[in-house]
Structure formats: structure tokens, C-alpha cells
Amino acid sequence: MSSFKFIVSTEQAARTLKVQPPDNYRNVEKKYSLLVSDYYLNLIDSSREDIENDPIWRQCMPSADELKDKNSDLDPLAEEVQMAVSRLIHRYPDRVVLLATGKCATRCRFCFRKRTWTDGKELTDISRAELADVCAYLRATPTVSEVLISGGDPLMLSLEKLRFILDELNSIESISVLRLGTRVPVTLPALVKPETIKMLASYPGLWLMTHFNHPRELTDESITLCREFIKAGIPILNQSVLLKGVNDDAETLEKLFRQLIAIKVKPHYLFHVDPVRGVRHFATGVNKGLDILAQFRSSLSSLAVPTFAIDLPEGGGKVALQPEYCCEGEYPSVIDGHLIEY
Q1: In a 10 Å sphere around its CB, with 0-12 CB exposed, 13-18 middle and 19+ buried, how is residue 223 labelled?
Q2: String of b and e for 167-180 (b: at least 16 CB within 10 Å)?
Q3: Cβ–Cβ under 8 Å, residues 104 and 151
Q4: Residue 6 forms beta bridges with which residues?
Q5: Helix (H, G, I), strand (E, B) or coil at 160
Q6: Could you tell me how far CA 8 lies from the centroid of its own chain?
Q7: Which of 70, 77, 193, 250 is deepest in the core (most CB within 10 A)?
Q8: 300-339 b/e (C-beta count within 10 Å ≥ 16 → b)
């Protein structure tokens, strides 16, 4: 991992791109630090006069808007409340989320776990003692059949550490599916070596969940990596987030989804951004997502159309939304008893 270059300050990023740093970036960095791979930084179109509106820039570079919202919750999905044991979120009866690490190749400014890298802190890698507690809980809870390994990004772990985690989970009789949530194919594809793909392919129930948000992220390097995973027998699903100023129009998303299915990556979810403190300036409103989905009805096959969803506050879980093709008017602001204010 030492052979890869990571940018850790706005000044360093601005020098690399030969542009002016944004306003108030020092105060933003004090609260929400910057970390971006040089690979992902170089996807920014530095020739733009309005570089702060570049869709890659918006996803990885600090913005003064991050400090405007002082009242929203850092954990609106109540993940900490729903921790069955340390590192393990148990929200649904049959599946859990394991927070394996806090490391990422790039810290996304819209991150819904921004709380784990706020004020200079960072979630550490899971310890063997914590993993033992997780496995003991799962053995005692056989209704759980699926584990999403997330973080942070589990592909930032060493090969040995990741293999140990997968082996421990795979040894539990009731666990039949492992999902690996990663943005490395988007932000640093060269990090993944052939031995990592070979190791992951040895687990028959393993799926890769990646996170492309914009067509420009589908580079030759990222496409090649996705093809290597698929060639090894690892299916890939993509989860995008609808982000204001990044991909909040039908043309951009249609291009993205068409390119994904062309390389056998299924667009799985399109999420409305969560109401997390420091993130809400990315919110488009639910109506925007439903309007875009309605435009796909005549232009995209079901293979290319993801499920549009929101995560309900207070740990209420995901709710899939569909436009009402037979009716006109506003979409409901109350869903399953929850007031949705985005």
C-alpha cells in the first residue's frame, strides 16, 4: 500500500491540480479531514473554471457547505444503537453489517459514516477479540444468514487480515452469503492484486458491492478490475447515491447505468443521500429521484434500472420508492410513519 500516493490536505491537492483551493477549506479540514488517492484526484477536470462544480471534485474535496448544518444527527440511521456487539450492526432479522475497518482509499464528502472520521479521529481495524465476539453472536443467532463486510473499505485491509475475517465468518454454519462493500474499484483500482481476487473467489457465497456514482469514474483501470472480478466468478452489484451537482439528472445516470451493464455490473440501488450532519448539501429531495426514475421507464431496460430507495431515520431500514405513473402531484413526505425532510 506504501507505493500508492494519498493526498491529505487541500493545499497539496490544489498544488497537484494547479488550481486555487476553495474558500474556508482549513476550517472544513479541521472538522472533516481530507484523504484522496492521487488516482481519484486526477479524475478531476482541472481545466474547468468552475472546478468546484466538477462531479469528482464535489465528491472528494472539502466544501464550506459541510459546516453549515450544525443540527443534523451524525448517526441518523441509529447504527450505534443497533450494534449487537462492537462492530456489528443488526437491523434486519437475516443479515448484519460488519464494520471491519475505518480506512478508505478516498474519504467521500457525502459519507453516511462521516462520524467515524470527524474531528481527527478514525475507526481502527477490527481486532481479533472484537471479531471473536462477532462470531460468537452470529453462532448464537442462526437466523442471520448474510454478512455485509463494510467500514471504511475492507479492501484496504491486508490480504492476511481480510482472509482471516472471511474464514472466521465462513466457518459459521448459518452464514451462506458474504458481501464485500468497497469503493476501491472506483477510487484506487490498482490496489487490488490478482492474489486478492483469487482469494475472494474461493468463497462461493461472496458478492462484491461497489459504488460508482458518475460515468467518469468508469476508467479503463476500473473496468479492467471489474472484469477480473467477474472472470473469477465474483458477481458485482453497484450502489449509487443521488448527489446534487454530481449525478442528479437522468442523462448522467442513464449513461452510468448503461456503461455498468455493458461490463456485467448490475445497478442495484440508487440511494437518496442520508440526512447526516455535514452531508445534507448533497440532498436533491426525493421527488428529484422519482422524476429521474420515471424518465427511465421509456429509455432503460429493467436490467439497467436500480431500485431507488431511502434509509428511514432512527434505524427504520430501507424503503424502495417508485413513481406513480397514473397520478400527478407531489410524492408523500411521510413514509411508514416517518417524516421525510430532505
Answers
A1: middle
A2: ebbbebeebeebbb
A3: yes
A4: 37
A5: helix
A6: 20
A7: 77
A8: beeebbbebbbbbbebbeeeebebeeeeeeebeeeeeeee
Residue 191 has pLDDT above 90, yes or no: yes
Q: 106-142 pLDDT, tens per residue?
A: 999 999 999 999 998 999 999 999 999 999 999 999 9
Q: What sign does the CA torsion over 224, 227, 231, 236 have?
A: positive
Nearest Cα neighbor of 105 from 62, 60, 65 is: 60
Q: What is the CA radius of gyration of the chain?
A: 20
3-state secondary structure of 316: coil
Element counts in the chain: helices (H) and strands (E): 11, 14
The values of phi and psi at residue 312, to 5°, are -70, 145
SS3 at position 118: strand
Each residue of 212-234: pLDDT tens digit? 999 999 999 999 999 999 999 99
> Which residues pair with residue 239 across a beta bridge?
269
Separation of alpha carbons 7 and 269, rounded Å: 30
Better-predicted residue by pLDDT, 246 or 323: 246
pLDDT surpassing 70 at residue 48: yes
**Could you tell me which of 92, 78, 76, 334 has the C-alpha nearest to residue 321?**
334
Exposure of 12 by Cβ count < 10 A (0-12 exposed, 13-18 middle, 19+ buried)? middle
DSSP strands (E only) in the chain: 6-7, 36-37, 83-85, 88-92, 95-99, 146-150, 177-181, 206-210, 236-242, 266-272, 307-312, 317-321, 334-335, 338-339
Beta pairing, strands 88-92 & 83-85: antiparallel
In one letter, which amino acid is 210? T
Q: Active-site residues: which are they?
A: 91-92, 95, 104, 108, 111, 113, 274, 311, 318
Q: Which amino acid is at 284?
A: T
